[in-house]
Amino acid sequence: MNINNNPIFKKNTNFDEAFPFDKITVEHFLPAIEHSIQLAEINIDEIAKSKDTPTFENTILALENSSEYLDISTSIYYHLFSSNASDEIEKLASKISPMLANFSNNIYLNKDLFKRISKIEEDSNSYAKEEARLIKIYYRRFVRNGAALNLEKKEKLRDIDSELASLSPKFSTNVRSATNDFELLISDKKDLEGLPKTAIDSAAEEAEGKNQKGKWLFTLDFPSMMPVMKYLKNREIREKMSKAFSQKCFGDKFDNSSLIKNIVALKHKRAILLGYKNFAEYTLEERMAGSSATVYELLDGIYDQCFPVAKNEIAELKTFAEAEDGIEELMPWDYAYYSEKLKTMLFEIDEEEFRPYLSSDKVISGVFKVAKKLYGLTFKENKDIPVWYDDVKAFEAYEEDGNYIGLLYVDLYPRKSKRGGAWMNELRSYGIAGNKLNKPHITLTCNLTKPTKDTPSLLNFNEVTTIFHEFGHCLHGLLSNVKYKTIGGTSVFWDFVELPSQIMENWVMEEEALNIFAEHYDSGEKIPSEMIKKLKKSKNFMMGNMYLRQLQFGYLDMAYHDNVIEIPDIEAFEEVVIGKTRLLPHVDGSTTSCSFSHIFAGGYAAGYYSYKWAEVLEADAFEKFKEDGIFNKDTAKSFRENILSKGNLEHPMTLYKKFRGREPQLESLLKRDGLLESSEAE
User: What stretch of H or E contains 426?
Assistant: First the structure.
């Protein structure tokens, strides 16, 4: 194959050479990746066998630029694997992932290459800051990926990595397939009692799309499922949907149980082979937390604060449900329903009332305006840039002085070809590639409430928060100012990467920010101040239970990766680990693990705690914005310069202290979320 004729690589006239998604088909990926690997291996072989004295330029920088074509092709492939997959694209993963694992091993297990890097590392302090950091990062990567192992152990590592590479994509595919497989079709309009009009209209359109006009179709996509769980009066239907969600990929045709056991065992073997006690120890060596003990200290400390609060919340909810409908035993499918009813009663608030003021177009415009007020950025839609689906939009991003900084793709709505959840992805990172400084191409991907034929996409506050969260990640990628992509943008410690995203969520709850974008989609009326006050009063409602939910994930993640080798039964294992966090009855056949893509297919293994870790950072950091003014230019400038632009140029705690003037305080988070005050009052 002539690589220049493949649209993945062929020079194009799109703005900033944006990838030609309109021309790329599944047939282009395998030959492109195979050829790219061959080119990269030639480049790496030349570096490793060079007789020249090792220098930064001829070794580290050459290695940084050795796989440019491969970076492009894999970036596009894995993006589509998550965002717009076909059966054919998914099947390719079983070939591509092991190939890439083998290629990676060929680099990190190359003894000649490691010798050159080691020689440079000995003298790394004589280099400038960015170069010295890059040298140390590469050296650590090689060590942590087996470069110092003997030949026998290197071969064992290759086998493990090859097997792992095939298991994670399969896990992800199973979750997507199980989600798509479930459909709840309702024929009797009486069974829709309680549902808001937006949910009913959306379900009617889903049904019509499946030749079921006059009926209503619900799925396990969050925008479809959550209104059912929160508002539908019919308890039996809520139970059916709840069980479908909690039992997916466990004991069904998409069962992930054996995959989990294999993945956990292989990661443990890998860590042992590299000289670590377990996978958690291996992972946490390169995290702010540093050790399992520190992670458990965080989780246990929060647990002690939130459990009594959560217990009281559930007691109140049980009393309310019994008084309201005679519910003798509160079940998981009752939680969201009665929580919403109790919240409405206590705070005279109905979340659905907010939707008309939160159309997705206005929210996207709003988050851009917030970025302009904070950082001087502007975003301009470019309809000529090819996209991977017809409702995806592309925006050019500019500095206040008009300098172009990068592209942002926005992909908001669910579809069968897209995995669940929300994420940011770097299609192309800021940094040197060959002789060129690339500007970043970033994606913001969600699964939000879709428009109907009568109304635009109208969001709830959780969905608005999701947009702001992912946009925070996007800013981290767009505003990188580190010339080497390996240490720029979001390439930071995993428990630091959520700081830029989670801090952005705070603006959603500020009236000054809401007034920028929250206006009625039809009348243009600004969101009433009284509604915002009610929202703020209710924001900590059931917060104890929200915390417990996150702790469940954190404890479960650590249990899988902290010395566990054999797991006879997934369901029983979960009960032992997270039983202390459970305040509602366990439903037989339900698991969290079997659809826990974050840790088994998404890179968060031994790292899910990082959401809570980063929450401590962001609550403490936002206090600074609150003190100075949420749109204070100097504070925003400091956050940009010390956090958003610096990538992995320095240790994250050093960067944080440069912004805040001190280390973060847990109390900031607990006070903000009403837990410290509540627990002290007990």
Answer: strand 423-428
156 vs 138: CA distance, rounded Å: 22
> Measured between alpha carbons, how far is 327 from 337 in angstroms, rounded to an integer?
12
Beta bridge partners of 185: 217
**Choice among 121, 340, 352, 470 that is catalytic:** 470
**Domain assignment present for 349:** no
Asked whether residue 87 falls in the same domain as residue 199, the answer is no
| Residues 247-267 pLDDT 10s | 999 999 999 999 999 999 999
Domain end residue (candidates: 196, 222, 242): 242
- Whether pTM > 0.85 for this model: the answer is yes
Would residue 159 count as lying in a domain?
A: no
Euclidean distance between CA atoms 135 and 127, whole angstroms: 9
b/e per residue, 94-114, with b = 16+ CB within 10 A?
eebbbbbbebbbbbbbbeebb
Asked if residue 139 and residue 12 are part of one domain, the reply reads yes
Calculate ∠ Cα 90-282-475, nearest 5°: 60
Domain, as residue range, for 186: 182-242
Q: In what order do the strands lie in the sheet with 378-381?
A: 378-381, 393-398, 404-411, 441-445, 423-428
3-state secondary structure of 401: coil
pLDDT 10s digits, 523-539:
999 999 999 999 999 99
CA-nearest of 305, 375, 331 to 680 is 305
Which amino acid is located at 245 in the chain?
F
DSSP string for 135-202: HHHHHHHHHHTTTTS-HHHHHHHHHHHHHHHHHHHHHHHHHHHHHHH--EEE--GGGGTT--HHHHHH
Interatomic CA distance for residues 215 and 491, integer angstroms: 47
Instruction: Give percent of the chain above pLDDT 90.
Output: 96
The number of folded domains in the chain is 3
34 in active site = no
Contact indicator for 460, 355 with CB cutoff of 8 Å = yes
Looking at the structure, tell me whether residues 132 and 189 fall in a common domain.
no
Q: Phi and psi for 419 in degrees, rounded to 5? A: -70, 160
Q: 192 and 138 in one domain?
A: no
| Dihedral sign computed on CA atoms, order 180, 184, 189, 193 | negative
122 lies in the same domain as 40: yes
Residue/partner pairs of 632-636 with CB below 8 Å, 24 or more apart? 633/374, 636/374, 636/375
Q: Given pLDDT bands bounded at 50, 70 and 90, which one contains residue 682?
A: very low
Secondary structure in 3-state letters for 347-362: HCCCHHHHHHHCEHHH
230 inside domain: yes
